[in-house]
From TrEMBL:
It comes from Kalanchoe fedtschenkoi. Belongs to the glycosyltransferase GT106 family. Pfam families: O-FucT (PF10250). One of its GO terms (molecular function) is glycosyltransferase activity. The keyword Iron-sulfur does not apply. The chain crosses the membrane at residues 29-53. The lineage of its organism: Eukaryota, Viridiplantae, Streptophyta, Embryophyta, Tracheophyta. Coiled coil: none annotated. Its main location: membrane. This is O-fucosyltransferase family protein. It is a single-pass type II membrane protein. Pathway: Glycan metabolism.
Length: 498
């Protein structure tokens, strides 16, 4: 190698370095730009070809590139700051009942945990009730959203630390708290127990918090959990939204919560319209479940007291009396109707546009929810909440929670049927004491002020079971204050029984 020539070249290079370097940088920059264009062109072509042959293969990949940073940024912005507090112990809860009973219980247990400065373990759901639904919390609700959205109020963990597990010989205190209790009960009687038992397991949670008389911040926290923290899983939300959009695409619709189901009839002892064989079957079911305390029930007495769900035939007369016509689209929000299509024949004849989720969705779309009663109920909950008019034939937990959601969403119309008055009117019409015009006018008059308009809850001192349910009318979360709610009331809507 010629070192001199090499050195000479180096000298010449140094002399013109100022000119050469900019040119070299331009070339490198130009090559990089061209390479990037080529790579992105290939990627676009690859995606296009992939979409032609297998549209779903690349969708996840591309959406991950385009959406993930935005989702992370959005989640970071919405995540509330964690509350810093010294935990007094761990609260474990087992909810009992159906979906909506458990939903209300979850809201109450969050409030209890916040009041006592506890760490809440993600609630266990009922798997042993009549419905025998094996669903866990995360199968119905978005567990990460639940945990993160409440982090500024309480700490929520998905499972107890290992040292508190049965495997290590730890036995938590199991107990059901006293029903309809206020904050003083929990502060004075439950909180001291955590000094001795680091973990307490509430094995029943239904109706364990008072409807009325609680501080406003606790009432608002109940609403925050119910309306914001308890979101259904993305799978339920997606299918429920599709169901709602399908119904809305066909025009306005009524959601009829026809609670004429086997468990309801057996529990209530109502057998109106049933065959003797069906009545006996319902009685056997009632005896099969020990927690159904009443065994011998006179159906007709219950019906006249307004304690039975309306039959499909009775519901047909009421809808017609309220001027719903044959063109009305009616969504049946319920499980399997006892007696099947035989009991729906009169209703379907009067209202041909009756639909159910099984009629609106492909069997494959519902397959993942079959044998999961609470997940199917979640779909009905979404549709009932979104409906133009909601009419429950019984004031059970779903009816009351849907009513509360509809109030929260702007007092959407909910017709609260006065069953005691209705069965009286129906009997008068059927024995021809009333003609149709009189019957229809009486039904309308009885429900003029029962459409979910603003009102205060009825308070019955020392009889909480007879009070209006908090979750059916959480007015503290709807009005700025109680005075504003009172100003919105129509005459006769507010009552306090003493």
């Amino acid at each position: 190698m010629d070192v001199r020539s090499e050195g000479g070249a180096q000298v010449r290079f140094d002399k013109i370095r100022g000119a050469v370097i900019p040119k070299s940088r331009f070339q490198i920059w130009f090559i990089r730009v061209c390479s990037s264009i080529v790579v992105w062109t290939c990627l676009v072509q690859l995606v296009a070809v992939g979409q032609l042959w297998h549209p779903h293969i690349l969708s996840g990949l591309t959406s991950r590139f385009t959406q993930a940073p935005l989702s992370v940024e959005k989640a970071a912005l919405q995540l509330p700051p964690a509350r810093n507090y010294t935990s007094n112990g761990f609260l474990k809860v087992s909810c009992n009942g159906g979906l909506n009973q458990m939903r209300a219980a979850i809201c109450d247990m969050v409030v209890v945990a916040r009041l006592l400065n506890l760490t809440l373990v993600v609630p266990e759901l009922d798997k042993t009730s009549f419905w025998a639904d094996p669903s866990d919390f995360e199968d119905i609700f978005d567990v990460n959203h639940f945990v993160n959205s409440l982090r500024d109020e309480i700490r929520i963990i998905k499972r107890l630390p290992k040292k508190f597990s049965r495997k290590y010989g730890y036995q938590p205190l199991k107990m059901p708290p006293v029903s309809w209790s206020n904050e003083k009960y929990y502060l004075q009687q439950i909180l001291p127990l955590f000094g001795k038992h680091k973990v307490i397991h509430f094995n029943k949670t239904d109706a364990r918090l008072a409807n009325n008389g609680l501080p406003i911040d606790l009432q608002k926290l109940r609403c925050r959990v119910n309306f914001q923290a308890l979101k259904f899983t993305p799978q339920i939300e997606a299918l429920g939204s599709k169901l709602v959009q399908t119904l809305q695409g066909k025009g306005p619709f009524v959601a009829l919560h026809l609670r004429y189901e086997m468990d309801m009839l057996a529990f209530s002892g109502c057998t109106q319209g049933c065959t003797p064989e069906e009545a006996e079957e319902l009685k056997r079911l009632r005896y099969a479940f020990p927690w159904w305390r009443e065994k011998e029930i006179v159906s007709e007495e219950r019906r006249l007291q307004g304690l039975c769900p309306l039959t499909p035939e009775e519901a047909t007369l009421v809808l017609q009396a309220l001027d719903f016509n044959k063109d009305t689209q009616i969504y049946i929000a319920s499980g399997e109707i006892y007696g099947g299509e035989r009991r729906l024949a009169v209703l379907r004849s009067a209202f041909p546009r009756i639909v159910k989720k099984e009629m609106q969705l492909d069997p494959g779309e519902l397959e993942q929810f079959r044998n999961h009663t609470s997940q199917m109920a979640a779909l009905d909950f979404m549709v009932a909440t979104a409906s133009d008019i909601f009419i429950p034939t019984y004031d059970g937990n779903m009816a009351r929670l849907v009513e509360g959601h509809r109030r929260y969403l702007g007092f959407k119309k909910t017709i609260q049927l006065d069953r005691r008055r209705l069965v009286e009117l129906i009997d008068l019409y059927q024995n021809r004491t009333l003609d149709w015009s009189q019957f229809s006018a009486s039904v309308k008059s009885a429900h003029e002020n029962r459409t979910g308009q603003p009102s205060l809850r009825k308070v019955v001192l020392d009889k909480p079971k007879e009070e209006d349910y908090f979750y059916a009318n959480p007015y503290e979360c709807i009005c700025a204050d109680e005075n504003e709610c009172r100003n919105q009331l129509r005459p006769g809507n507010s009552s306090v029984a003493r």
